[in-house]
Amino acid sequence: MPATSGCDEGVDQALVEKAMDVGRIREDFPILGREIGGRQLVYLDNAATTQKPRQVLDTLRTFYETYNGNIHRSPHLLGQEATDLYLQAHQNVARFIGAEDEREIIFVRNSTEGINLVAYSLLSGGSDQMGLAPGDEVLLTVAEHHSNLVPWQMVRDRKGVVLKFLDIDDEGTLDLEELERSLTERTKLVCLAHVSNVLGTVNPVREIGKLAHAAGALLLVDGAQSVPHLPTAVKEMDCDFLAFSGHKMLAPMGIGVLYGKRALLEKMTPMLYGGDMIADVTLDGASWNELPWKFEAGTPNVGGAIALGGATDRHSGRRLEGAVDYLNRLGMDAVRRHELELTARALQGLRAMPGVRVVGPPQAERRCGVVAFQVEKDGAVCDAHLVAQLLNDVGIAVRAGGHCAYPLMRRLGGGGTVRISVYVYNTVSEVDTFLGALGEIITHKLL
Ligand SMILES: Cc1ncc(COP(=O)(O)O)c(C=O)c1O
Description:
Elements: H1 13-16, H2 22-26, E1 35-36, E2 39-40, E3 42-43, H3 54-67, H4 77-96, E4 105-108, H5 111-124, E5 137-141, H6 150-159, E6 162-166, H7 176-182, E7 187-193, H8 205-214, E8 218-222, H9 234-237, E9 241-245, E10 256-260, H10 262-267, E11 278-281, E12 286-288, H11 302-309, E13 311-312, E14 319-320, H12 323-330, H13 332-351, E15 356-358, E16 370-377, E17 380-381, H14 384-393, E18 396-397, E19 399-401, H15 406-411, E20 417-421, H16 428-445
Parallel strand pairs: 3-18, 5-6, 5-7, 7-8, 8-9
Antiparallel strand pairs: 1-2, 4-10, 9-10, 11-12, 13-14, 15-16, 16-17, 16-20, 19-20
């Protein structure tokens, strides 16, 4: 890996010492060999979705080539094997986030569906089930992704629940005193992203959980941008719910996770109804299956779940490596350290460029590997899409626009931002390539 001298601002060098072998990691990602317009692809859009390593792609293929059968109650071997592999995927994901057991892991499509599951469940919960009542309060922040905002607006409109929003300061930080002041005896739920997909801020969810619980409220954490990048321990965090997406952590699209504390999930009504989620059905009604199946109606994405969690064929001993295995092998502490190094480099480089305004905390260690910025020229904010397009012309993939966080973009003063976001296979030299290309664009190409 290239040396980091002169670009180590904000990073503890002792932590960086045990660096990951990124060159070796890159060999696992076939897509990184692509060229875009004759240039080597530099993929810096990992907050949108990550690339997939060969091991995970092999698992998906192996599942369909060798084990494909529908799960639960299959009398034949394929169905039994698929059921066992699918259960193991639940168990491995539970271990990865430090959950009590697999009953707390519900496979969904993505973070959005996980949050919707909680919202719909609390919307419909009756007197004997956990639910929200008119006048109850849900506390959010102005920085939420639409996935953790629009479902709650739906609950507000249908149930008469009151939504309250915590503001951020100029560095994209929440004020915990404001949080404390905002909590009332009517607050039933505090919902926020652990890591903002625009500001990159790592929010102090543990402290927020303590305050929420002291006020009698539950804590839902949107982990879409944190679980892939930080060591996660739900028991220490003491969150009641945690939603995250497989595709943002090396797994295929279409598989995600809702973690929920078992005692709560037991008291909640399902969001989807149909096969597999029932214990019994008569023409008059139905009773629900045990956890987690109660919340997994219909045929789930079995192959995707195994590609996320990993599993072992108990008869042959063959390992189907999941994204979680891959990340465990790297070590989430090492992933964090690597991203800190890249983030610090990007922040320092961007800050040195005239007309570039980075949003979010100035220090790398207060962030994950998301860095969004605006470019100003002659007193006006340049079109973020134009900047992204010009970067794309030289093979650099970044995001531009409102990042599914329109209220936050308005709060930041309007106009979209350009966003880079890094992951395990990105290198310091890729960050430098991006900085060099942006410098060129600012100097020579922007009108
Ligand atoms: C903070 C945050 N929450 C939720 C989501 C939604 O994720 P998904 O589209 O996988 O449901 C995203 C996606 O970018 C995100 O960044």
